[in-house]
């Protein structure tokens, strides 16, 4: 959980980022060392690495295979199969109660879904099995069909509608990402949920209540899964560790995203299981919120100065990469700028093609 010192440190880093970006946009050389904890925000040239977390880049060549051997219990009755930072492999959760077990996300395609189902059935034993997915995107939802005869599938209505509308086109899109991804999607069928909700619902697993709540931001149908008794929060791709936010189409909203992150921070989770990247504490939510707020302010300033979207993208992208050198998904920075430009100008967003 964030303490007061960490809260203040993250906010100071946001102010430092503003000064540092000004220097970068002005063409001032920026270099420097590791810790902004004891530095003034007036020292941007020494603060670069304070804005990032260190770690390996995702492996883009490994097959997108969920590995149940990576399963580990991170809290009593809460197992995750963690993301080994391989592209298109999410964090997956298995949450136990005395009467039932809930699986969160499936992996990419039916074979990954079978791997997750096998482990979930082993853990559940005689207990009832549920499945829910944090959003409709392929690596989170497209293994759901193999659960159909073994689990009750719960989905928020917005996610179900978005899956029906966009699912087929996302299969076509993801198959262009390489033969290993195309192979993983082979045989994918869409699973219709057995139970739907709107807004929020509480699921009783027996001695453990789980809160499901819609949090539209990254997609129209994002949902969180919260385990209050251990303070564990599954965010889907609304939060990822060391990734730029993915705003893939016009249904993404930076304004909503900031509001959602504030709501999630208000839960004061002790553990955040992001859609991708390492399990973290609630600081991961604050860092992402500050990044989006920071980007929004910069785009609005440049719009006011008369720059168009292309000019803003060309001007801002290299400066943002310099601010966050260890964050991945740099390809999505122009998408984020496109959404922010649309919100700043009141125009429909114009996004790059994949």
In words, what does this structure look like?
It is a single chain. This protein is α/β, with parallel strands linked by helices. The chain is 37% helix and 16% strand. It contains nine helices and twelve strands. The two termini are 37 Å apart. Mean pLDDT is 89; it is low at 1-7 and 27-52.
Which blocks of ≥5 consecutive residues have pLDDT under 50? Answer: 1-7, 27-52
| Average pLDDT, all residues | 89
Question: In terms of structural class, how would the helical and strand content be classed?
Answer: alpha/beta
* Radius of gyration over C-alpha positions, nearest whole angstrom: 20 Å
Helix fraction bin = 25-40%
Percentage of β-strand residues? 15-25%
The largest pleated sheet is described as: 7 strands, mixed
List how many beta strands DSSP finds: 12
Shape: globular
- Discrete helix count: 9
Strand order, sheet with most strands? 1-2-3-4-5-6-7
